[in-house]
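[agent] plan:
  1. take the single chain provided in the ticket
  2. run structure prediction with default settings
  3. attach structure tokens to the ticket
  4. add a short note for the reviewer (M.T.)
[agent] executing step 1
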Amino acid sequence: ADSQRIATATEQMQLIEHLSDGEDDPMPHLSAPLLEMTDQQVVELGSQMNVPWSLAWACQRQGNNPCRVCGACRRRSSAFEAAGLEDPIDKPVAISA
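[agent] step 2 finished; step 3 output follows
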């Protein structure tokens, strides 16, 4: 399901870019480079850019914390594993007294 949504979004972006390629067309150039990257590549790039991964997740369930079992959580976990990086949401949270 996620891969189909990504494929559809990529196709839509490519169509918009194609339609805006005319010299007389005032439409701005659109670019969505992350759509063509694998999840692993996104995690690696984010790591190089010091993305605060602990502040973001895409859990399909509503809540204050990711469930770690839904499709989106498993996909994120797989991306971090493939990149050889520890997912910061898997680190224990220090509780101060």
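[agent] step 4 note for reviewer: Residues 34 and 71 are 19 Å apart (CA to CA).
[agent] ticket updated
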